């Protein structure tokens, strides 16, 4: 574990917390979802390490054990933070795995920083191409009313909001697909998130258009999604990302919710390891 300095302006350097298994294996960089931390990859890191990969997972600014500045909660800055991780550790031939809002970092990193360090990418239950439902994006699954409700819920009562959010996060068709202990572990991670950062990051993943970013992706890509994802519905996100990336692979996991890397860890890991081996 280490801290990496990410730069935002002349007088606003921040420290990102990074967990790095080390070793000579090919690097796999795990980018967590909102409002969690790198600890949310607990079901993937042992499997990837056992398969011989070097696993790097970091906490996004404002979340987990990373610094929590007042600014920088936009995807250009998130992508720059990711670039700082790759550059500082000098990772090459790497695979980026972006879960949920982390998929936005993958797309924006490639659009802004290129693919020289990359072998492949994975969009897991990810928010691209564009969540917001707008006149020029009618397939966007996030209505303005739903976005306003989320923001209001988080502003008014953070504890109650996260309790409901984690329930939906891990539920498929109204049925919780993890143990209560696993849900409580996720709630514990939400408590590490800065309130201001959570609100600004929510705005970022809900309103950022990644359609042009996806056009820059030419490395091999895997899309993993649950068919019962109620948080980032497959039809409006993963399906469209797959269609936007010619030659991409698609794995849809049956009866899986948004948090499928925990609820369906075996299927998720099998799909990821199979893709990495190609």
UniProtKB/TrEMBL annotation:
InterPro entries linked: AB_hydrolase (IPR050471), AB_hydrolase_1 (IPR000073), AB_hydrolase_fold (IPR029058), Epox_hydrolase-like (IPR000639)
A Pfam family the protein falls into: Abhydrolase_1
Keyword Lyase in record: no
Domain named AB hydrolase-1: residues: 27-263
Single Gene Ontology MF annotation: hydrolase activity
Keywords from the UniProt entry: Hydrolase, Oxidoreductase, Peroxidase
Keyword Oxidoreductase assigned: yes
Protein's name according to its UniProt entry: Alpha/beta hydrolase
Source species: Microbacterium thalli
């Amino acid at each position: 574990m280490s801290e990496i300095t990410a730069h935002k302006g002349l007088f606003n350097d921040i420290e990102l917390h990074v967990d790095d298994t080390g070793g000579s294996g090919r690097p796999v960089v795990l980018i967590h979802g909102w409002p969690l931390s790198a600890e949310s990859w607990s079901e993937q890191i042992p499997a990837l390490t056992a398969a011989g990969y070097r696993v790097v997972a970091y906490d996004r600014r404002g979340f987990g054990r990373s610094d929590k500045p007042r600014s920088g909660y936009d995807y250009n800055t998130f992508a720059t933070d990711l670039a700082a991780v790759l550059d500082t550790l000098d990772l090459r031939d790497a695979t980026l795995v972006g879960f949920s809002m982390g998929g936005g970092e993958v797309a924006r990193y490639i659009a802004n920083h290129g693919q020289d360090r990359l072998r492949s990418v994975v969009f897991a239950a990810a928010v691209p191409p564009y969540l917001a439902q707008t006149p020029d994006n009618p397939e966007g699954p996030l209505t303005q009313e739903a976005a306003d409700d989320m923001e209001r819920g988080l502003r008014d009562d953070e504890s109650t909001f996260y309790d409901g959010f984690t329930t939906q996060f891990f539920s498929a068709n109204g049925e919780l697909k993890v143990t209560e202990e696993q849900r409580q572990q996720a709630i514990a991670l939400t408590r590490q998130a800065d309130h201001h950062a959570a609100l600004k990051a929510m705005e970022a993943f809900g309103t950022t258009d990644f359609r042009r970013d996806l056009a820059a992706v030419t490395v091999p890509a895997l899309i993993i999604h649950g068919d019962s994802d109620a948080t980032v519905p497959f039809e409006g996100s993963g399906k469209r990302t797959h269609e936007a990336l010619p030659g991409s692979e698609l794995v849809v996991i049956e009866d899986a919710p948004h948090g499928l890397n925990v609820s369906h860890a075996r299927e998720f890991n099998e799909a990821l390891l199979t893709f990495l081996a190609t």
